[in-house]
Specification:
Radius of gyration: 19 Å
Shape: globular
Number of helices: 3
Strand content: 35-45%
Distance between the termini: 56 Å
Structural class: alpha+beta
Helix content: 10-25%
Largest sheet: 11 strands, antiparallel
Length: about 190
Amino acid sequence: MNKIFSFLVVLSFCISAYAQEKSEARKFWNSLQNLCGNSYEGSLELPVNDEQFGGKKLVMHVRYCDDKTIKIPFFVGDDKSRTWVLTYNNDRISLKHDHRHKDGTEDKITQYGGISSNSGQATIQVFPADQETKTLIPAASTNVWWITIDDKSLSYNLRRLGTERVFKVVFDTTKSVENPEAPWGWKDN
């Protein structure tokens, strides 16, 4: 009986490890990990005429990666206030937005985002606004963010359901650019 139990435990572990390795969320995560250490220039696709992002150099730097966390500072011209923080846990990925002031202190509107409701697909993960976001920014309670990735590009997207609010920036991941200086709140090591 002990041999059968031991066999079933080992078999269960192997199946679980195989399933996790092959999950869509894991494949997506691994694709992001492959970009680690590199920076890529992007172009704003939506909205076409945007005062905050339009006409500015847009760069993402996949600056920090470990097994559970990926941090991607997003530079808008000289503004170094934004970092996308992705976390992998139990075959789900969360996206949070870390906003900082020039002195490194947190902005009052920070750490908003969402968690994927399922394992998604290897090329796209969707993050509906979580309760923390609804509490912090009531108007953003219907936000849905998604990130797409393939062998040529990464896109970061936002849609506020029920409104005209939409945002899409696409980064060409076939050619890296020079890594920028540290974003606000980071130490440049």
